[in-house]
Records
---
Amino acid sequence: MLVSQMAYNISLILVLFLMFCGEMNAMESELQKRQMVMEEEELLGLFEVMDALLEDTEWGQAHPQPCTETPWPGVECEVSSDIQIFHVTKIHIGPDIISPPCKTTAYLSQSLIKLKYLKVLSIFNCFVSSPVTLPNTLFGPFSSLEHLSLESNPSLFGEIPPSLGDVPSLRVLTLSQNSFQGSIPSQIGGLVCLEQLDLSYNNLSGEIPKETGGLKSMTVLDLSWNIIEGVLPYSLGQLQLLEKMDLHSNKIIGTIPPYLGRLKRLVLLDLSHNLIVGPIPITLSSLELLEYLVIDHNPIKGGIPFFIGNLRKLKSVSLSGCELIGPIPNFFSSMKNLTALSLDNNNLSGPVPPNLGSLPNLDHLNISLNKLSGVLQLSNDFIGKLGIRLDVRGNSKLCINDHPKGKNLSLYLEIPSCLSIRDRNDNVSFDDGPLQEDASEIKPSWYNSNISSCSSLLDDLPIIMFILACPRVLLSTAAFNKSSRSVGSDNNKHAIQLPPLLPT
Ligand SMILES: *[C@@H]1O[C@H](CO)[C@@H](O)[C@H](O)[C@H]1NC(C)=O
Ligand SMILES: *[C@@H]1O[C@H](CO)[C@@H](O)[C@H](O)[C@H]1NC(C)=O
Ligand SMILES: *[C@@H]1O[C@H](CO)[C@@H](O)[C@H](O)[C@H]1NC(C)=O
Ligand SMILES: *[C@@H]1O[C@H](CO)[C@@H](O)[C@H](O)[C@H]1NC(C)=O
Ligand SMILES: *[C@@H]1O[C@H](CO)[C@@H](O)[C@H](O)[C@H]1NC(C)=O
Ligand SMILES: *[C@@H]1O[C@H](CO)[C@@H](O)[C@H](O)[C@H]1NC(C)=O
Ligand SMILES: *[C@@H]1O[C@H](CO)[C@@H](O)[C@H](O)[C@H]1NC(C)=O
Ligand SMILES: *[C@@H]1O[C@H](CO)[C@@H](O)[C@H](O)[C@H]1NC(C)=O
């Protein structure tokens, strides 16, 4: 279609050229040709915009017909349906288009408003040295902008202009990793078509405007890494199409509004690193599609809520540093889709549910820095599979069964050996109340039939006798040895991997 239109235009130009050949000089025919293809004002507007951005002052001369004969990869055009005229619909500057680079004094020209048909404006890593603001006058109801992405521009600062809220066609607004300050303008509530709002990694303060709840088409809301304060507005419960809500690393206070349970499409909820208090509302149990529940580092307090066990699709649960108390509930053991569980840095007590080790997909388990107790009964296979992604340290009353000939799991996991605790515990003069209370719990699993015979075998008899008496221990130790070699080179000490932006 494009080609035939171009051919049509070119033939028209040819006819004109032949008609006026005698009278016109080359310069005039060039102008005529251009006018046939693009409106002069729009073309000049584009030249001014590019001139304000790019190092190359000759961009206009090098690309006199950017929509047709002299294209540039960062500019796209569309032909209007009624009259055969091209309009600039996309300007993109980013790492994939490196030549010419942005100039050090790059800025956004007011001439952008002459590009009335512009749908996509995306500028990455362009404003890096001299300070630039986003003028309030660039946007308005006259604009056709659908997609505005200004990302990784460290010298782009100042406030987000309220006039952005007047661009009703906007569907994607990404202003991530700039230096924007001030509060999020409430006018943003006017963007009725908005599907994605990403203002992450700025210096935005103030509260989340309650008008945000009016953005009924929104699927992605990312305000992470700012200094946003105040409570979560109840209106957020109206974002019924929301799939990703990422508000981590702000200064949000108050509780999680119960209305968030209405966000039935939610796949990711990240409220970590804020000042949010508990309890986590039970209404969240209706978030049936939730895969990532990330609430770590908030003063939630209380026990781990039981409804989490109903969220069957959960892959990753992070409740580290939430001042939680009470036991690790057994329901985690039936969440077959779980790949990462972080409960570290709380005050959780009681035993570690042994069935956690039989979760088929669990690949990261951090329960360190709690008050867990008893014998750690995770299988050696599991311990070997997770390698350094298993962290049980810092639970002084948690121990592991070692046996003298096997790999020293106590040393490996950096928790006490149950044998040494038992020896100490047997001594009447050893004074550690809870340890003595839990004494029955601390007995290694292979002691449960007959302690005295097994321990004497361990100490005195040849290894062959030991195999007869306690075959399970030796077999599983061998398995550990085997699998520990296979993960030996794994140095990934990463916490939970969050998914990238959801597909639109
Ligand atoms: C954010 O604000 C703080 C204090 O207001 C300032 O120290 C910091 O440099 C700012 N960061 C950016 C990226 O502007
Ligand atoms: C795991 O997730 C799938 C869909 O992703 C779901 O069909 C399945 O029921 C879940 N498994 C469990 C044990 O809940
Ligand atoms: C555990 O509880 C003690 C006593 O209440 C408190 O001082 C401590 O900060 C808590 N630790 C964590 C990690 O919440
Ligand atoms: C587990 O959590 C502790 C404390 O929060 C942290 O220091 C440690 O690096 C974590 N371990 C892993 C393997 O993620
Ligand atoms: C394993 O190492 C720990 C700490 O060094 C020690 O107390 C324990 O006796 C060792 N266990 C065995 C079976 O060697
Ligand atoms: C056990 O207690 C006795 C005294 O009652 C003491 O001499 C001995 O050192 C203690 N042993 C251990 C392992 O603590
Ligand atoms: C332990 O072994 C002794 C003999 O060595 C036997 O009398 C006792 O009944 C056994 N106890 C259990 C619980 O099997
Ligand atoms: C365990 O691994 C060591 C080498 O790391 C090897 O010498 C030993 O034979 C292995 N033991 C078993 C039971 O596989």
Note: The pocket of 2-acetamido-2-deoxy-beta-D-glucopyranose (ligand 7) is lined by residues 449-450, 453 (CB under 6 Å).
---
Amino acid sequence: MSNGSTFPPPRRPRGAIVLVVLAAVLVAAGAGYLVLRSLRGGGGAPPGAAHPAPSASAGDGNRPDKKDGKGDGSQDSGSGAHSGKGNPHGSLKGKTVLIDPGHNTRNHNHVREIARLVNIGNERKECDTTGTSTDAGYAEASFTLDVARRARTILQHQGAKVVFTQDGDRPFGPCVDERAAAGNKAHADAAISIHADGSAVGNRGFHVILPARVTAGAADTSAIVAPSRQLGERVAGRFVAVTGSAPSNYIGGGTGLDVRSDLGGLNLSTVPKVFIECGNMRDPKDAAHLTDAAWRQNAARGISEGITDFLTS
Ligand SMILES: [Zn+2]
């Protein structure tokens, strides 16, 4: 069961696009005189008479499709704002996205190295951890890298530059402070760390973790708290819509959102950043999703669309 009401409604410009498309369809169908009469103020139709249609359709939560994108150029020139709506190819040109695949498939061979403590501003924590796995042994680190690569393909197709913290190309880590630094160094417009949880059986669903306001030592998240929440809300909203997964039933009170001050990857970030725990690897029902490649593709799509929404708003 999805709790869509906790997420931001589709943005108005999409409704405006629907309005334009609807008007065009009406004209093509030979009903143009109705529209013209309305525009001239004739027939007693109030100026806002055509507005209920788009608001009704906006409520269905449909994702933007290719058809929306095709018409974007001319429609945007009419409305004069919010170019890039409808996710046309190239809408993320000039944008940089940092993707952090959580953990590392080889961390378990480097227990001593990843146990080294690093400073995350308000405390010292392990450099990195091995992550969890399903009962059948599918590692969280394999999951995070797979979803990250799928999301990279989608975002690159949209024109974004995508930077990874690790791509299965190093023996362990990187440490959590380095993972944050990678996004900062790339001047990422948005950053996301991909994970899956290891909780009790029966605990199900995804949640997005937002940075708390932390100002301690090298950590100062005051500038990223607000934009990170916007990013997180959009990712959560699109994740629900695309995967059909419900927000976590054990964290976040049904909102799919959590706020934490104990994650180095968030504390040390100077760019908008969130974590997503895509599901609970220890729950058999969630694990069935997490181990399914088709579901992971949808997860990557939900994440990518949330990022795209954030970057084109
Ligand atoms: Zn993790």
Note: The longest helix spans residues 12-40.
---
Amino acid sequence: MDRHAEVLRIFVNDLNDNTSAINYCCEVYQTNKSLGTKLGYDLIDLCLTTNGEAAIPTILNPKLNFLDPIVVLEKLPDETGLDVLDFFIEFNLRSINTELKNSIIQNELLKVDLIDSKLQKLEKEREYVRLTSSSICPVCGKHFNATSVVVVTTTGQALHYGCNGKDN
Ligand SMILES: [Zn+2]
């Protein structure tokens, strides 16, 4: 039996202190996620073996929310009452909800970013198109006048309509 398993055994069997055992798993999880997760499952097995169904309210502790709720539910005896599970399921649903909300918010932020960059692009294009009396057409080198029909290329250059497509 390794040291961690021995610590859990002492908390649960000798001291009957499940809370400290749960805290111990959480502490290990802070520094080693996979080991903490494994210990969490071990603790659930140990509590069930030691205290049977009486251990369930203790094991379904929100502090152990890093464990996969499906795996935890599968470990529980089949005869576990729904009333006992209510809190656990509600708690897990709530955290799923939070994740969902977060992803919706992220999505909206992405959209805002997208709109923002579209606006910036539009503004950039508008800058390119701004013509002054000294603007000249890069193809023919002549100024634009009030009657010039102007096209804007994809690179943002203003050309005479008639010069578009000619080599420059
Ligand atoms: Zn021109």
Note: Helices lie at 3-14, 18-31, 33-51, 56-59, 69-75, 82-129.
